[in-house]
Design goal:
Keywords: Methyltransferase, S-adenosyl-L-methionine, Transferase. Residues 719-728 have a biased composition (Polar residues). This protein is of the alpha/beta class. It is built from 22 helices and 32 strands. The strands form 7 sheets. Strands 1-2-3-4-5-6-7-10 form an 8-stranded parallel β-barrel, surrounded by 4 helices. Helix 4 packs parallel to helix 5 (160-171), helix 5 (160-171) crosses helix 7 (228-239) and helix 15 packs across helix 16 (450-462).
Length: 835
């Protein structure tokens, strides 16, 4: 038998990690001449992939300024209010107004909308002219084949909604144009606008001073609000309905903001990372470098499926053989550069035109290896998938194969079986020909047989004899199981293969090594019942219902179920990318209605998201969340929703059978006879409370699970399902317990590097905005009747103050219910059962 896969095996490392793709662009704020094919070729030969180009020229800027000034002078000379005059009309662009022309080379050009316009101006005249210019430039850039445009963010946050409305109209002018809003992480942009901005021509009555005199709220000139820039973006993308062609050009400051704000921006659709010259430090040799914090932040972005582009802004001119009118002059050194330029070597490094570019390429080539889960899930980042439906669908061989590549799951199952064999050997009554005890093991839902092999391997290692049964309903997998029993030397014809739904299987036939028992034949009991029915949310693949149906074959006194117990866990997420994906799917998927899209949970490899509810870790938790190492307050708050244990007490199953058979005259709470009502669950009456320290938007709930595969009765302590006690998985023989977890708080010390399960995501149709120091109360139900099982979920936002929290906004529910509705039924049909 081949050795189990591990993180270093060929399954993950057949080839070395390929360096991530990184497109680097050159941006000069004072570039005013045309970006010719010659300049573009020089830039690409140097190592740049992209160049920015203004859409219009200084001539157009002067023409617009003159037009507005003439209009204002006319109003002043005639003593006519500006609003009573016809608005000035900007004539179409002329060749002198733009250097752009249609060209195949334009695919490597990022257009820059005139930064001197003010779409957020309180002055109607300035806002109108700015909006007109935006439309002209976007339309002409789209005509020329430029597909990426940068628009500077709002000059003032007061007019953000007017700005957003103008951007929304611009998105409709070019169906293939991607618009990137240039924003700082916090505070203001590093680079000032070249030339005279239109804002300077605004009427005095609309100035900040006038607004202050009128008693309106005006931002203080002191320290900028930490989340102010993000709030602006939140308003823009909200009004634009999470448009798929709207993203962010994020400018990185010299000193990054706190980790929690970095994580928030990381979750957003950042398409450009802008590095002004001030972002860089100088090492002792004078070369430009990024701080460790910047390097770590860039590495996170480079691990995305579609990494953002990097844009070097005013760092160095493009090297040319002769001075070009379109090439920026060498910029003035920053104070740090000037103070470090004390030697010839340092001066040479500071003046080398490709120093910043070469450094970013160096970072690209020296990125750390990705963890196993990322290598395994490459291409599936934030990709929404419907949960598997193994009860109704016969899985394909490739699906089984993917699961079997897990380096942890089956090894942990083998450990659990080994512990159970050692504990049960003295208790079983079955004997082999040599008089030694024989433990009967049944693998229900055997698939292609990996757990069967693990059971046989556990028997070999422990020396405990076993009699193994493999039960599988999939007729295609059944063929492979039979062939494997004949040809696999580990199996050696010792496995009894049964074609049956586990719930219909009568049990192992006594005295036969190869058949599953028929009518009138004697059947025995199973000592160990092994299954792998767990889903991303523990019970979402109907493990409780399936194991209830097969429990009758388990020995009533010493029978062991592997897994023994499992629990589901939740936490709120900001995941705008997933929300935007669902919005885009709402109109193009013919298999579901628009409403149904929001009433389904999705399995997804979460990557570009932000844990909104965070806090200091407890003394017994660790986390796989990468920011926690840098900021101890970034451990996510993840709460248990409910749990299940197996085997179920016989009295509970007996009552369920009586209700199902009509022997008890009591209907179910959800209708029908209530035979599955013992598997209904809900959160505690007070709900799950998630404190949200920093303002944000909840797009849904992330779900995880934990399971105790086996905990020996002889263990010193038997932890509950939701235990977070730190144990080393390698010490399983001493602790005599084996656990699996996808919970980020416990995965690293229960089942590190496990890849079989991605998290599950429960979406909100209407995202919920939460203020600083807010609180999200989550309620969830696992409903059931005679025909189905389904989930319901909802959230309520509270603003915590002194004393009792006050509810703010509306309740968000599955399907986007508002106005206090408690939620709607959410189902995935699985073999006649909703999940």
């Amino acid at each position: 038998m081949s050795s189990p896969l591990n993180a270093e095996s060929s399954s993950f490392a057949t080839v070395d990690d390929i360096p991530p793709s990184l497109y680097i662009g050159h941006h000069a704020t004072d570039r005013s001449g045309p970006v010719t094919t010659r300049l573009l070729a020089q830039a690409q030969n140097t190592g740049y992939d992209l160049l920015t180009s203004p859409i219009t020229t200084p001539h157009f800027h002067s023409r617009v300024l003159q037009l507005v000034e003439d209009h204002l002078q006319n109003a002043a000379s005639t003593q006519t209010p500006v609003e009573n005059l016809p608005t000035p009309l900007i004539t179409p662009l002329s060749p002198a107004d733009s250097h752009l022309t249609p060209s195949d080379a334009n695919s490597a050009i990022i257009g820059v909308v005139s930064p001197w316009i003010d779409l957020s101006s309180r002055d109607p005249l300035i806002a109108h002219v700015s909006k007109h210019i935006l439309g002209m430039e976007v339309a002409y850039a789209a005509f020329c084949g430029i597909s990426n445009l940068i628009i500077h963010g709002p000059v003032s946050s007061e007019g953000t909604m007017h700005y957003a409305r103008a951007v929304l109209e611009a998105l409709g002018m070019g169906p293939y144009v991607q618009i990137h809003i240039l924003l700082p992480m916090t505070g203001e942009l590093e680079v000032d606008v070249e030339g005279t901005p239109l804002a300077e021509l605004a009427s005095d009555e609309y100035s900040a001073d006038a607004a202050d005199e009128d008693g309106e709220d005006v931002e203080d000139e002191g320290e900028p609000e930490l989340y102010g820039s993000w709030e602006v973006w939140e308003a823009i993308r909200g009004l634009c309905s999470y448009h798929g062609r709207l993203s962010i050009a994020l400018e990185l400051p010299r000193q990054l903001p706190p980790i929690h704000l970095q994580s928030r921006w990381y979750s957003e659709p950042v398409r450009l990372l802008v590095f002004p010259r001030t972002s860089f430090l100088r090492n002792p040799k004078g070369w430009p470098v990024l701080s460790k914090a910047h390097q770590s932040y860039l590495s996170r972005f480079l691990r995305l499926r579609f990494p953002p582009w990097a844009l070097l802004s005013d760092c160095n001119p493009i090297p040319t053989q002769e001075t070009s009118s379109v090439t920026a002059q060498t910029p003035e050194p920053t104070p740090a550069e000037a103070s470090s330029a004390s030697s010839s070597t340092t001066a040479a490094a500071a003046e080398k035109p490709t120093a910043h570019l070469e450094y970013l390429r160096h970072l690209q080539q020296t990125q750390p290896y990705r963890p196993p889960i990322e290598r395994f899930g490459q291409g599936y980042q934030d990709f929404l998938q419907s949960p598997l439906q193994p009860l109704t669908d016969n899985l394909e061989s490739i699906t089984y194969e993917v699961f079997e590549k897990d380096p942890v799951k089956y090894e942990w199952y083998e450990r659990a079986i080994a512990l159970a064999l050692e504990d049960l050997e003295p208790q079983v009554t079955g004997k082999g020909q040599d008089g030694k005890a024989v433990v009967t093991v049944a693998v229900v839902g055997a698939g292609r047989g990996p757990l069967v092999s693990r059971a046989l391997e556990a028997s070999r290692k422990t020396g405990v004899q076993v009699k193994v049964w493999a039960v599988e309903k999939n007729p295609n997998a059944y063929v492979l199981l039979q062939r494997r029993n004949m040809e696999d030397p580990v199996w050696g014809g010792k496995v009894s293969v049964v074609k049956s739904d586990m719930r219909s299987w009568k049990g192992p036939k006594v005295g036969s090594p190869s058949t599953g028992g028929g009518e009138g034949e004697t059947t025995g009991k199973v000592d160990i019942l092994v299954s792998e029915l767990l889903g991303s949310f523990a019970d979402n693949e109907l493990s409780p219902e399936c194991l209830d149906g097969v429990q009758h074959v388990l020995h009533p006194t010493h029978g062991v179920s592997i897994p023994q117990s499992y629990s589901a866990h939740l936490t709120p997420l900001a995941s705008p990318r997933i929300h935007a994906d669902l919005l885009s799917r709402a109109s193009n998927d013919l298999n579901m209605s628009v409403q149904e899209k929001w009433e389904l949970p999705y399995v997804v490899m979460l990557h570009q998201y932000d844990f909104l509810s965070t806090g200091p870790p407890s003394s017994t938790t660790t986390t796989t969340h990468e920011n926690a190492a840098e900021d101890p307050d970034l451990h996510p708050n993840i709460h248990q929703t409910w749990s299940f244990s197996h085997p179920v007490p016989a009295s509970i199953l007996e009552q369920a059978h009586q209700r199902g058979g009509g022997q008890i005259d009591a209907g179910g709470f959800q209708g029908g006879n209530g035979s599955n009502e013992h598997n209904a669950r809900c959160t505690p009456s007070g709900g799950l409370s998630f404190p949200i320290p920093h303002r944000g938007t909840v797009h849904g709930l992330a779900g995880y699970f934990e399971t105790v595969l086996y905990a020996s009765p002889s263990a010193a302590s038997k932890p509950p399902t939701n235990s977070t006690s730190k144990t080393n998985p390698a010490d399983w023989k001493q602790t005599r317990q084996v656990e699996l977890s996808t919970n980020p708080l416990t995965m690293s010390h229960k089942s590190p590097d496990m890849i079989s399960w991605f998290p599950i995501f429960f979406p909100f149709k209407t995202p919920l905005y939460i203020p600083d120091n807010g609180r999200l109360e989550v309620q969830m139900w696992r409903g059931t009747d005679d025909r189905g099982v389904w989930y319901e979920w909802c959230g309520e936002v509270f603003e915590d103050g002194n004393g009792r929290g006050e509810m703010v906004g509306e309740r968000g529910a599955a399907g986007g219910g508002g106005g206090g509705k408690s939620g709607v039924r959410d189902c995935i049909l699985v073999g006649g059962i909703c999940v």
